[in-house]
Amino acid sequence: MDADAALQVIERVVRAVPPEQRRSYREFSRAVQTGLEAEGWTVRREQPAPEHSWPRLLYDRTGRINLVVMHPVRVGIELDNFTPREKSLRKLREFNGVKVVVLRQGRGGRYRKKDVTVIECGQPRAAGGVAHGSHR
Fold this sequence. Notes:
Number of helices: 3
Order of helices and strands: HHEEEHEEE
Distance between the termini: 29 Å
Oligomer: single chain
Number of domains: 1
Shape: globular
Number of strands: 6
Low-confidence stretches: 123-135
Structural class: alpha/beta
Strand content: 25-35%
Largest sheet: 6 strands, mixed
CATH topology: Trna Endonuclease, Chain: A, domain 1
Helix content: 25-40%
Radius of gyration: 14 Å
CATH architecture: 3-Layer(aba) Sandwich
Strand order of the largest sheet: 1-2-3-4-6-5
């Protein structure tokens, strides 16, 4: 499977997560992992980021990537809320494989930021522009 095909599967899986499961990082993370595993993918949670990225992480002492797909193609997935966090981009920068940040919120777009593909789920913000759940 090539990177484009993998990105299409990830996009389909994350957009299929119901809005009520996008409100918290924990629920969203589990839903994405379950969806990818239903596709036959092997997924690991909270895998150590490449060692070279650790000294540059100011707030994450453990340097862990939220989800890492091991098969059929190696993919590092960081799960953020509204925008790709610099910490997420740093962790993925040294990752050997397809690099993805998935945003729980957003307009449903897909774009590149540096060498990372950003996928927005498409859930609109709550009234007044305030989102539910944590910042992560």
